[in-house]
Design brief:
Elements: E1 2-8, E2 13-16, E3 23-25, H1 52-61, E4 65-68, E5 92-94, E6 99-101, H2 107-117, E7 120-125, H3 132-143, H4 149-156, E8 167-170, H5 185-202, E9 207-210, H6 223-232, E10 238-245, H7 252-255, H8 259-279, E11 287-295, H9 320-335, E12 340-345, E13 355-357, E14 363-365, H10 369-378, E15 382-384, E16 392-393, E17 401-402, E18 404-410, E19 416-423, E20 430-436, E21 442-450, E22 469-470, E23 475-477, E24 480-485, E25 489-497
Parallel strand pairs: 1-20, 3-4, 3-12, 4-7, 7-8, 8-9, 9-10, 10-11, 11-12
Antiparallel strand pairs: 2-15, 5-6, 13-14, 15-18, 16-17, 18-19, 19-25, 20-24, 21-22, 21-25, 23-24
Helix pairs in contact: 3-4, 3-5, 5-6, 6-8, 8-9, 9-10
Length: about 500
């Protein structure tokens, strides 16, 4: 068994973890809404048509914020289509995904669902086919109390109290040629700045998210962030990042190292934000919203009938190796909690999602559900500087890949400490020595483990074998704990203050 060490000190803190880093995403895409969170007539549906089995599963994830309604969808969406009496709402050709949108479900329905799911909304505005005026009007409809046209229209629609949405995305992936209303950096920066300005005139308490590059492989990556941020710096609060990974080449060692790309992506965008801050001679700090991230490739190329309604689209079935990478991606996000303040696992239900349903039928939790659930429930507090000393290996794509990657989180009350760790090695068991240098009186209370599964093993509506189990607790001697970390494993090691 190989040896590894993780020294930890309460005095070496990276930053406070914003709970919104454990957010997710619902787009009008596939069965995310229709047949996902909303299915009137389903055996579990409540009086509003919301599937209660889905709400129960979402509540397990403890998701604090959900981005809505897109995604590519938002760049062609008229928000007015989704309000008012349902029988009067128009059906539209939805160009981003080539389907028909019925608009049976819209803004007020989603905000009602958020309350039942114990989450908040991160609303996106259309800066593709629409612009400043529509963005302003939507903020007024959602957030103004009463006494104006759009606030009184909301009240007429049966919603007396304002929704009070605090985070607003200024469009989606506007650098992408596939995007409806695609713009160059200057065009987007100007309209984003003016939209954010007028939106904050309506409600000065909101925060806005500027679209960064659609991914780090875009030809414009870096230049786009710098130019758009120079235009909109004073009226935005976050820059967005999007990243999906795949294992199309069936190279698992390289696949499990891809969160190193995510680390570099984050650090690069932070550098650009700080560069523009310097140009502006500003004290204001721009933080990051990593509002799309996941594994995505299993369902690529699945045909969809054009103009159909809520077809099965992008329904990846995740396996065990996907769960390991999702855990590693979460480690990367939390590692830079000082600057990454919002994160959205894309998406939440059915569409590249941790939760899967059958229309008219059952529900199951995918392999990636569990690392996300563990982080969201136990990863609240302060990120500690966490440098694991261990052996490294090379892959076809990467060099010097640490066998172990992990992060430690100290609870807000400093009465609990949680270590999240992945062993990327195919063969090597590790004894991880956790040196709690100034943590007196802590005792191990739980070791959650996912290990021993086939890399391609999946869960399904019939059987869900890939689940966490309780493993042997660490051996502890004073302020040193030793824990067995199995090959190809996801681990959550929890300590609590011993008050006896």
């Amino acid at each position: 068994m190989k040896k590894a060490s993780l020294p930890l000190s309460k005095n070496f803190k990276v930053g406070e973890i914003d709970k919104r880093i454990y957010g997710s995403f619902i787009e009008h895409l596939g069965r995310a809404v229709y047949g996902g969170i909303y299915e009137p007539g389903h055996a579990t549906a409540d009086e509003d048509g919301f599937r209660k089995d889905v709400i129960d599963s979402v509540r397990k994830l403890n998701v604090p914020i959900v981005r809505y309604p897109g995604g590519n969808f938002v760049s062609g969406y008229n928000w007015e289509d989704g309000i008012g009496p349902k029988e009067e709402r128009p059906q539209r050709l939805e160009l981003a995904w080539g389907v028909t949108e019925t608009n049976e479900f819209g803004t007020n329905e989603f905000l009602k669902w958020c309350k039942k799911a114990n989450t908040e909304c991160m609303m996106a505005v259309n800066l593709g086919t629409r612009g400043i005026e529509a963005a302003r009007d939507l903020v007024e409809y959602c957030n103004h109390d009463k006494g104006s046209y759009y606030s009184d229209l909301r009240i007429k629609h049966g919603v007396k109290d304002p929704h009070n949405i605090k985070v607003w995305c200024l469009g989606n992936e506007m650098d992408g040629s596939w995007q409806i209303g695609h713009k160059n950096a200057y065009e987007y920066g100007r309209v984003a700045n003016e939209a954010a300005k007028v939106m904050k005139m309506v409600d000065p308490t909101i925060e806005t998210v500027l679209c960064g590059s659609s991914n780090r492989t875009m030809d414009t990556f870096g230049h786009w962030e710098a130019e758009t941020l120079q235009e909109a710096f004073w009226n935005v609060d976050y820059v967005s990042l999007h990243q999906y990974f795949d294992n199309k080449l069936d190279d698992t060692p390289s696949f499990l190292a891809k969160n190193m790309v995510m680390d570099d992506f984050i650090d690069t965008v932070i550098s650009i934000c700080d560069y523009v801050k310097g140009l502006k001679r500003a004290k204001k700090q721009i933080n990051l919203s990593f509002d799309e991230w996941n594994v995505w490739y299993h369902s690529n190329g699945t045909p969809v009938e054009r103009w159909s309604k809520a077809p099965c689209q992008l329904e990846d079935i995740y396996n065990f190796e996907d769960a390991l990478l999702v855990g590693l991606m979460l480690i990367s996000l939390v590692r830079r909690a000082d600057r990454v303040k919002i994160g959205c696992l894309a998406q939440l239900v059915n569409v590249i999602a941790p939760i899967m349903t059958e229309t008219g039928g059952g529900i199951f939790e995918q392999t990636i559900f569990y690392p996300f659930m563990h982080f969201s429930n136990y990863g609240r507090g302060t990120t500690l500087l966490s440098k694991i000393s261990c052996d490294k290996h090379d892959t076809k794509e990467f060099t010097d890949v640490p066998d172990l990657d992990g992060i430690a989180v100290l609870s807000p009350e400093e009465d609990a400490l949680t270590i999240f760790a992945v062993n990327r090695s195919f063969e090597e068991d590790y004894e991880l020595s956790i040196d709690m240098l100034d943590f007196g009186g802590f005792k191990p209370v739980e070791h959650i483990e996912m290990a021993g599964f086939g890399l391609k093993e999946t869960n399904s509506i019939v059987s869900a074998p890939v689940k966490p189990t309780n493993a042997e607790l660490p051996e502890i001697d004073g302020r040193n704990a030793k824990i067995h970390i199995k090959p190809l494993s996801w681990n959550v090691i929890r300590f609590e203050k011993d008050n006896q």
